[in-house]
Amino acid sequence: MWLETLRRRLAKPKTSVQLCLLGVSAGLIAAFLIILFRLTILFFQGLFLDNPDDFTTLPPLERVLMPIIAAFLIALFAAFTGFKHYRLGIPFVIHRIKSHYGQMPLYNTVNQFVGGALALISGFSVGREGPSVHMGATGASILADKLHLPYNAMRTLSGCGVAAGIAASFNTPLAAVIFVMEVVMREYKVHIFVPIMLAAVTGALATQFVFGNASELELITITTLSGWHYPFLTLFGIALGAVAYAFNQNLMLIIRTFKPLSMFPRLLLAGLIAGGIAYLVPQAMGSGMSAITLAVETPEDVQLLTTILIAKLLATLFAIGLGIPGGIIGPVIGLGVLMGTLMAFFAQFISPGVDIAGTYSVLGMAGLLAATLHAPLAALTTVMELTSSQEIIVPAMLVITTAYVTALQIFGNRSIFLQQLDFQGLSYQVSPATEALQKVGVMDEMDENFKLLYSDDKQQIESTLNAVDSQTPLIVYDAENGYRLAEYDLSLMSDQNIAINYISLQGISSQATLADAFDILKDKRSGAVYIYNLLDNQQIMGIMRWDQIRHILTIRNSLL
User: Fold this and answer.
1) Spatial CB neighbours of 17, under 8 Å, sequence gap ≥ 6
2) How crowded is residue 537: how many other Cβ atoms within 10 Å of its Cβ?
């Protein structure tokens, strides 16, 4: 009984204690999966690396063989589990949230866990946030599915899982919330915002409990920049916007070029390329966070940093483009830090004797993130959280806006996630009407005042219609016609003849939203659907008419 009450409460598009508690639960589940994922990577890397993600101490032959063997194992596991469509990471999660209320296939997630772990253990240039987001959304959707929650609540909880995944990956709960709203959900609603915020905090705290509160950017020293740097920062932002456009274009070029190849040769080619880069430039291996350490330790070695930048750029493009499971945010952060450190070499003439390499490295990260992902606000909050520095805010805003506008307006750049979705033919756009209706469960608006008659006898139907109130719908059922709505046809009635009009009813689950009812009725612009309870022998719970949905869209849309 309490579960039924919970489901009815969650069908409403409003903030509630129940939804907040479920958001915390989703955050805990996501954090558990991500902690397990990270511990798996650390355990296996600890068997052959002195420091996590530092592959420079390995012999050349091992550096070459590791990515090749890992690519083979990734392809073998995918083939063994029957996973043919290599759709993983943040783009796939966006598609599932927009088109399937965040329901995530289990095989898909298992492949993401195993494949992502193998890729990161072996030094592929991919980020851990891709698998983290994927697993976080899956954990939340499984929770919602087991409790048979309304789909609108499942959609919100999937967003909670994504936020917990980002927060657990980078220890940035605020940036995780903004990222979900700006990139994944692509909307700002308070009743969605609050549980997502709680899930992000939960994910961050759980991860801090296991791994501590340390951040890769803590090594970087932030220095206040004088106003003389701002014209140069504008040029820096323009350069970052151009690089972001080139990065996205080349990544999509690789994806399109190698699409005809089947999974096995494509992944093995990725392993061969990664092995070759690892042999020549071992510093380019890893998720991208190791590049931060290199930039901090050798900011004056322009030749080394340039070599690492080029090698890491190629390693990232081919790893992601050829289908290695992993995220793109981690490598983009590393590339941005390297670019910023290199730009500081030229900017030091503006402020001689002042150490500005750290500040520029952070600004490079922020600008490249904003322009590549089309997430300027998320990039800004990431910088603020990772550096805990007020001095970085104004120059970061200048670089981010310049890079973002340059990439968008001058080059026509689009989010790399949306470009990947377009290429794969996965939907991520819904109409404003559907988006509004997805937020309300049918249990919140259905008409529960109805009469159900299991008979097709016309006289019995007539007597029942006479007995019930004119505002009470009569649903009749017979084996041949199924469920139908019976009502008087006033246009054909006469003193001697009483005409009954029957309207066929299609059933939808009590988990459905108004958008599901809208999709069924929108072509006819009339009719009704009945709502049944999956858990009680498909008992009919209520009825939803087209007129009710139209009223919500035209009169009450502002409430949604």
Assistant:
1) none
2) 7
- Are 320 and 257 within 8 A, CB to CB? no
Query: Which residue, chain included where needed, has tokens 């690789």?
Result: 254
Q: How far is CA 270 from CA 5, 126, 273, 288, 311, in A?
A: 51, 12, 5, 17, 14
At 513, the pLDDT band (50, 70, 90 cuts) reads: very high
Task: State phi, psi for 407 to the nearest 5 degrees.
Answer: -65, -40
With CA atoms as reference, report the closest residue to 240 among 420, 419, 382, 361: 361
Listed in sequence order, the residues at least 6 apart from 443 whose beta carbon sits closer than 8 Å to its beta carbon are 7, 8, 11, 150, 510, 531, 541, 542
Residue 491, judged by CB atoms within 10 A of its CB (0-12, 13-18, 19+), counts as: exposed
The secondary structure of residue 450, as a DSSP letter, is -
- 3-state secondary structure string across 379-439: HHHHHHHHHCCCCCHHHHHHHHHHHHHHHHHHCCCCCHHHHHHHHHCCCCCCCHHHHHHCC
Cα pseudo-dihedral 511, 514, 516, 519, rounded to 10: 170
Among 180, 335, 176, 185, smallest CA distance to 251 is for 335
Amino acid at 96: R
Q: How far apart are CA 162 and CA 96, in angstroms?
A: 12
pLDDT tens-digit map of 225-258: 888 899 999 999 999 999 999 999 999 999 999 9
Return left, alpha or beta for 171; rule: phi > 0 is left, psi -120 to 50 is alpha, else beta.
left
Q: Are 451 and 460 spatial neighbours (Cβ–Cβ below 8 Å)? A: no
pLDDT of residue 496: 52
pLDDT of residue 43: 94
Q: What is the pLDDT, as a whole number, of residue 115?
A: 92
**Which residue carries 């905090």 as its tokens?**
201
CA dist 46 and 32 (Å) reads 21
* Look-up of token digits 């190791």: 290
What mean pLDDT do residues 345-357 have? 83
**162, 133 in Cβ contact below 8 A?**
yes
Judged by DSSP in three states, 529 sits in strand
Tell me: the pLDDT tens digits for 415-437?
999 999 988 888 888 888 888 88
Amino acid at 381: T
- Reported residue count of the chain is 560
Instruction: Give which of 313, 295, 318 is closest to 305, Cα–Cα.
Output: 295
Q: Which positions ≥6 away from 5 have C-beta within 8 Å?
A: none
| Amino acid at site 42 | L
Which positions ≥6 away from 468 have C-beta within 8 Å? 451, 474
Closest CA to 324 of 277, 372, 373: 277
How many Å apart are CA 432 and CA 77, to the nearest integer? 40
